[in-house]
Amino acid sequence: MTSLQVRTIIGCAGVVAAVAIACGDPYAVTNKYDPAFPVQFTIAGPDSLFSLGESAQYTATTVPSFSDTSFVWETDTLYNYLKFLPPGGGVTPIDDGALFLKGNGAGHYVSIAPPLEPNVYQIAIAVLVGDVDTTLQRFPIGTIQTQQPRHVAYKTVVVTQRLIRIQLRCPDTHSCAPLAVGDSAFIWVDGIDALGRQIVALTSPTANPAVGDPQASPNTTNRAVATYVSRDSTVASVSPVGSRVGRVTPRKPGSTWIVATHLLVSDSLQIVVH
Predict the structure, then answer these.
(1) What tens digit of pLDDT does each residue of 41-82 get?
(2) DSSP for the chain?
């Protein structure tokens, strides 16, 4: 290496970034609207939504900056692991995330069909920036003028419906009439989230899909709305029917409590047998 070459390298190492680009790669991308230009995104907003109808506002910043009006928000696709896939295929597990998390295009999103916790959807929202006028070929129309974003970033939002309260009914009131040995009764469970909304698939008081997440019926691999236990099964036993009903069978005179539990919330009804 000649002494001239050494001096050139040392000189470039000590200059500012703009000059360093000129000293280094003469083909470095300097136009921020070029897709190859490195853009750093920061997306701010909630990581999780826990109720039906819950809304969230997301904002984005970039380095380098773009005008606020240039941001476009979208909802990406997701793998719907709750979807029932019949033998032989014919149904795709890939869904449009907007079916569950609806956006208005300006960073505002609303949970419209969340699965019942502990099931969750991990939905990616996308923010696009750097729109420029673009000429595209569209056969058989020919060329069209449109705007295309040059940069995109994603944030994953966890969507679920968390119940803060469940309530039993037998089947129309929060109490059960006395039973006789040989009778049977059906106990129904309702679930309420933090916004006072009922379980997405169970807004009808008589809806009782097959066992499994009500969103995924007839997929039977997921847990039901609640589990039922009799505190004294010698007086009356209970067994699940579908995703939200328990069948009570009297065994002998006495009284007991039927307890329904969903994750950390529970409710109970007293059963009296004559």
Answers:
(1) 999 999 999 999 999 999 999 999 887 667 889 999 998 877
(2) --HHHHHHHHHHHTS-HHHHHHHS-TT----TTSTTS--EEEEES-SEE-STT-EEE-EEEEES---GGG-EEEE-EEE-TTS---TT--S-SEEEGGGTEEE-SSSEEEE-SPPBTT--EEEEEEEEE--EEEEEEETTTEEEEEEE-SEEEEEEEEE-B-EEEEEEESSSSSS---B-TT--EEEEEEEEETTSPBPGGG-STT--PSSS-TTTTT--SS--S-EEEES-TTTEEEEEETTTEEEEEE-SSEEEEEEEEETTEEEEEEEEE-
